[in-house]
Design brief:
CATH class of the largest domain: Alpha Beta
Helix content: 25-40%
Largest sheet: 7 strands, mixed
Radius of gyration: 23 Å
Distance between the termini: 50 Å
Low-confidence stretches: 258-270, 272-283
Strand content: 25-35%
CATH superfamily of the largest domain: ATP-grasp fold, B domain
Number of helices: 12
Number of strands: 16
Order of helices and strands: EHEEHEEEEHHHEHHEEHEEEHEHEEHH
Length: 400
């Protein structure tokens, strides 16, 4: 019997379309002899839909048609079975059972732990990072604070809330100036390079912050590493076991890897871009990267440290920055659900995309079974001794 895998993607995030690209590609690479793949698409209005037609990228060119033929559903548990249940119709019929969820989501409201928390509350096994790791992976400020405590090198930075910048502009600009221009300005909780700007001086930093504030109320400003080489390293595993991918070296004509670099351009097809990471319009990747053995070992070790310190699981991509002159290596940020699930970094070491997806699902089921062995609740009910007229004191003696 096939394992029923529900792939959740979409959401209200500004990275909605990026999630669709990654999810449709992944669904078409899953082993369909082993898995019954059930698309679960979250529209921008937060409505959940399912239907096999959602595995076809062409469906998403017209969202009105998609919503007309796909079924509106909700994930729930009935008689110890996880199911997608219709939200319309007289009897709210069960559409299908689900054995395990595979979240392929990006951004706020989904990847930041929101979806993981919902799946935990339902009780269903799911692929990837849990609530804590997802939240840490999304917030670029908090993750840096964790890395600092964990002695993981990261670029110098300052941060502030939008209202603080409006009320204390001069002091914040002084803090930024201490980093030394140019600096890079980022919304703290977005991915895919959205809202990120390079500011060469104080005049331009104001415009950069104004841009970032459009997307988030928390802003991060970092120093720019000189003599820069940007590399990525993917980690697969959990808290007790980690595998390391080949390292990817980023090549771009821009000052940093932009949204357009990552997602605009490239070939089409049922399985999406299949050559490397997808053909970039203004940049490319070298996989594996051309690094000295010592630097390669540092990159891999820092990636594992980051993966463990931030409570990550499944497949994550760690983005790192190298000063090629001083040979210093800095962790830029993690991606808990990377675009294309970073499959292009696993192919060079003999793990193709289908195998990677299979390993992720297998690990999720194994971790779920291990969690079920832990004590999470007690059979006793202390409320059975509760006396409303006496409050909790009435039950005190029986609780001791």
């Amino acid at each position: 019997m096939k394992i029923k895998v529900g792939v959740i993607y979409g959401g209200e995030s500004v990275e909605h379309e990026v999630s669709i690209i990654t999810a449709v590609q992944a669904m078409n690479y899953m082993n369909q002899e082993k898995y019954d793949i059930i698309p679960i698409y979250i529209g921008k209005d937060r409505t959940w839909y399912t239907g096999k037609m959602l595995m076809d990228m062409d469906v998403y060119t017209n969202f009105d048609t998609l919503k007309k033929y796909a079924k509106k559903v909700v994930l729930t548990k009935k008689d110890n079975t996880f199911v997608l249940q219709a939200t319309t119709g007289l009897f709210r019929k069960i559409v299908t059972e689900i054995d395990v969820i595979f979240p392929i989501v990006h951004g706020k409201g989904v990847e930041d732990g929101s979806l993981a928390g919902y799946l935990d509350s339902v009780g269903i096994p799911y692929v990837g990072t849990g609530v804590l790791g997802s939240a840490l992976g999304q917030d670029k400020v908090v993750q840096k604070q964790i890395m600092e405590v964990s002695k993981i090198s990261t670029p110098k930075y300052t941060w502030f809330y939008d209202h603080e910048y409006l009320s204390n502009t001069e002091q914040i600009k002084k803090n930024i100036a201490k980093l030394g221009y140019p600096v890079i300005v980022k919304p703290a909780n977005l991915g895919s390079s959205i809202g990120i700007t390079i500011a060469e001086d104080e005049e331009k930093v104001d415009k950069a912050i104004t841009e970032a504030i459009q997307y988030d109320n928390k802003i991060l400003v970092e120093q720019i590493i000189p003599n820069l080489m940007e590399v990525n390293c993917s980690i697969f595993g959990n808290y007790e076991y980690q595998e390391v991918s080949a390292i990817a070296q980023i090549k771009t004509k821009n000052e940093f890897l932009t949204f357009e670099d990552k997602y605009i351009g490239g070939g089409k097809g049922k399985k999406g871009p299949v050559k490397g990471a997808g053909k970039m319009s203004t940049g490319d990747m070298i996989v594996p990267a051309s690094l000295e053995e010592e630097l390669e070992n540092i990159v891999k070790q820092l990636s594992i440290q980051t993966f463990k310190a931030l409570n990550l699981s499944g497949v994550a991509r760690i983005d790192l920055l190298i000063n090629t002159k001083s040979k210093e290596v800095f962790v830029n940020e993690p991606n808990t659900i990377p675009g294309c699930l970073a499959f292009y970094m696993w192919t060079p070491i003999g793990k193709n995309y289908t195998t990677l997806l299979d390993d992720m699902i297998t690990l999720a089921i194994k971790d779920y079974k291990n969690r079920m062995k832990k004590t999470s609740s007690f059979e006793s009910n202390i409320l059975s001794t509760f006396d409303g007229s006496k409050g909790l004191k009435g039950a005190k003696g029986k609780l001791g």
